[in-house]
Give the backbone structure.
Amino acid sequence: MDDLRAEFNAIPKTYKRALVKFHQKLAKLNFFDPACGCGNFLIIAYRELRLLELEVIKRQCGAKPTDKEIQSLILCDVDQFHGIDIDESAVHIALVAMWLTDHQVNLKVQELGNYYNRIPLKKKANIVCGNALQLDWETVIHPKECSFIMGNPPFIGAKIMNDAQRADIAPIFGKLKNGGLLDYVAAWHVTATKYIKQNPKIAAAFVSTNSICQGEQVGILWRHLLAQGVKINFAYRTFKWSNEGRGVAAVHCIIVGFGLNESEQRFIFNDEVKTEAKNINPYLTDAPNVLIENLSTPLCNVPKIGIGNKPIDGGNYLFTTEEKAEFIAKEPASESFFKRWLGAVEFLNGYERWCLWLGDIAPNELTKMPLSLARVAAVRKFRESSKSAPTRKIADTPRRFHVEFIPTSNYLLIPRVSSEQRIFLPAGFITKETFTSDSCLCIPNATLYHFGVLTSSMHNAWLRTVCGRLKSDYRYSAGIVYNNFPWATPDAKQIKTIEEKAQAVLDARAEHTTSTLADLYNPLTMPPNLVKAHNALDKAVDAAYGYKPVLNKVEGGGKDDAARVAFLFEMYQQLTAPLVETENVKKTRKSTR
């Protein structure tokens, strides 16, 4: 509608022929919502189209056209609107709602001093009851006749689809590598792209869950769409969308406007801020079309990262401080086998928990500890009764964890999920005597330099852009976030400076012994000395990257994130270019054999 209004306003008032031509254009536009529900998007689009037409008529005829002129000049009608929905009752509601909207806008005509209605009703919206992922969209409206595709397709995560929904997407995602990891909503993007290839003039836009533009799904979905020639022309970044239903959780959404034709202007919307972009990439940032894929090892020469321990023990090996004391009182020999246990919640909030680690205990020692032996037996029983085959398999080794990280030296801990409100990632060094759960990631052999970079604004900007989300919280991952992160190549002096500033951050934290990391990194309660230490660290890291901060902070939640991410994506392209070339050579050799 913005483009149509701009086109209308650009027509000089004396250009009657151009105005007639524009009016005829409005009457020929066709709008298509292939997941229309009760027709809300179609209703609003029709209302806005008719209001714009009313402005055109006012300019054509002056303030008071005759009844005859009105009858001949109202050209737009409900039959320009098309939709698909699987719910028959929703389809009937949408059809009636479109007629009601038509009536409401017809009453607006009375502003011109004329009475106007369309009784009897001769036209109706073309809304079809059917499964949009099984129905051929061409049977609803041919691509050559379609002008705009819009909608709010269903939000269903890849892991929670039912059998019928998996059957829907199977033929759509079948040729996409790892297509099974895509959410249900992505099927509309793939289907719409196939549809608009028959008419590149069609502009499309869907409200979607933000998952399709974050984390692992980006490399799967957008590699396919970009290969089809898709270009993103506008984007509304993550926002919370909740309905008024009781007990209904808010969904974190994005809006992506795309097509095969590139707009002269491209805009990114972030809350109330509208920014023009040179290029909008699949992460909805003004940066090159970079696709981050899951890597098993780091792109740069840095320590490897791994997941913490995953016991699958039914809670038998985990204790509160009180439970531990009670257990030791009954079985004193168990005391040396208790390890402090940190999950993300414990790490951030200062809670104390303990783990009974019997993985390395000698059999003869364990037989002398009946209470501990009973815990082992309970774990075996818990695993044997599981519905999961891999869990049943590890019942034979009940003293070992399913995933193990047994530290031999101090290590750096990163919580896998962190609040969207935090500007900095609250990582920290942990002693080898402490065990970490699988809600955290661990980096053995990490130095102050690595800690400094990972807790800087540079890395946090990368995290906020490429990570997956749990609701709206950041979900740190090894394969997407850490292993793909472009590290700088600093000299010895720069490394030393970063290490000094990193230690200053740790020292600033240590001054607040009664505060948790959650307290220290809440933007509203973050102490000034810690803010100052992080700002100094940022300057040292930026210098190592050769990056000059952008003073105008456009986006909320971070320090000039857009500029930092564009800078990092360019670095990433340079770092991965040799890898891409090598892979292409391999493919060429294979094809010529």
About this structure: The chain is about 40% helix and 15% strand. Confidence is low (pLDDT under 50) at residues 552-557. Residues 307 and 416 are 9 Å apart (CA to CA).
